[in-house]
Structure of DUF1292 domain-containing protein:
Amino acid sequence: MENDSLRDLVTIEDEKGQQISYEVEALFEMQGESYALLRNQNDTVLMKVEEDEKGQHLVPIAN
């Protein structure tokens, strides 16, 4: 049986200006900070979720 679960999709612009679509695999909190685990066919990334008066924003995590 195929995994046909519905997931939220987000599009992120990388450092080269290319737009890349990801599925949201998980949202979680750790030590008072919010994070999103994102995945597509080629990559899995972890990003910090920050919120301000304009809404929520995904922010890269520095290595």
